[in-house]
Amino acid sequence: MADNEKDLDLDVKSGSKLNTILLVVLIVLLLAVAGAGAAWYLMSGDDDSAAAEGEEGETAEVVEAQPKPAHYFKLEPEFVVNFENPGKARYLQLEIQLMARDSGVFEQVETHMPVIRSELLILFSEQTYEELSTREGKLRLREETLKTINQILQTGEDDPGIEQVYFTSLIMQ
Fold first, then answer.
1. pLDDT in tens, 53-78
2. CA-CA distance, 149 to 25, in Å (whole number)?
3. What is the pTM of this model?
4. Which residues are within 8 A (CB) of 26 and not within 5 positions of it... i.e. 6 or more apart?
5. Longest dimension (CA), the chain
6. In contact, 108 and 161? CB cutoff 8 Å
7. Is 166 strand, coil or helix?
8. Closest listed residue to residue 76, CA positions, set 102, 106, 103
């Protein structure tokens, strides 16, 4: 019986060694498959750029137009005008800042400042208290101010010059 126990003991030991070897081989194969899958996944990310290649093999460059940063210019001194109102004396005080993407346009604004101030004073004095009491009236005045300034600077739609006008202070009394 001792011989049978030794044979069984040897079979169990050799079986466990075989199981250990099979387990190690299985783990190595699993790691190899996982590594191959990860490599394929990372390499397939380049397919998007390959699809963008032209017939000659050159990659097409997509350039997204990023707007230039905004620059601001304050019109000084503030504008103070009397405006139309039957029966009572009313006045309007405005502080204005201009916004442009090209700060070089502000040199033109300074050059034409007497004309700009004159035209804006006339525009502001034509307003009525009732019109400027509403949000729509203030927005309309901003648009008219922008249009007036850009007409003086002789800029068109291709070159907007001044892009926006901001009323940083608006007092009516």
1. 544 444 445 556 778 899 999 999 99
2. 80
3. 0.59
4. none
5. 130
6. yes
7. strand
8. 106
